[in-house]
Amino acid sequence: MADSRKELGREAEDRAASYLSGIGYTLITRRWHGQHAEIDLVALDGETIVFVEVRARSGTLVSPEETITAGKLDRFRKSVEKYLSDNELETSPVRLDLIAIDEKGLRHLPGALDRDYSPTGRSVEDEDDPDRPSGFFSF
User: Fold this and answer.
1) With 70 as the cut, is the pLDDT of residue 74 above it?
2) In-domain check, residue 139
3) Quick one: pLDDT at residue 116?
4) What is the DSSP secondary-structure string of 26-90?
5) Does any domain span residue 97?
6) 3-class DSSP assignment, residue 115
7) Residues 60-66, mean pLDDT to the nearest whole number
8) How far apart are CA 129 and CA 134, in angstroms?
9) Residues sharing a CB contact under 8 Å with residue 5, sequence separation 6 or more, in sequence order
10) CATH code of the domain containing 60
11) Rounded Cα–Cα distance for residues 108 and 99 (Å)
12) What is the pTM of this model?
């Protein structure tokens, strides 16, 4: 089972990388390992450095978007900070994207993992939101 999950993850990252290249992004690196977490893809969208988390699910009732826990999001952001620091890019424009892949297809959500992203108008940092599932980053 672990092998099939790894394979699904690699295929999803390959598909996401091809998608981003196809819409004009320049891929910088893949599977960057930081102290806190792995960053699946780092790309350029014009002058903006885009850090991409790729989430894939197959045959499950849980959407890829729902699998991002608060802990995962925190580790991802810390890894982004480390990447920027290691590469002396702290003053560069940055965006944190999510690419979700499941049987419905590929969904690119630019800025979905940014601290101020909220399609509902509520802050994603608002832990008191009664409509937000506990422990999950909701969209």
Assistant:
1) yes
2) no
3) 59
4) EEEEEEEE-SS-EEEEEEEETTEEEEEEEEE-SS-SS-GGGG-BHHHHHHHHHHHHHHHHHTT-T
5) yes
6) coil
7) 85
8) 9
9) none
10) 3.40.1350.10
11) 5
12) 0.79
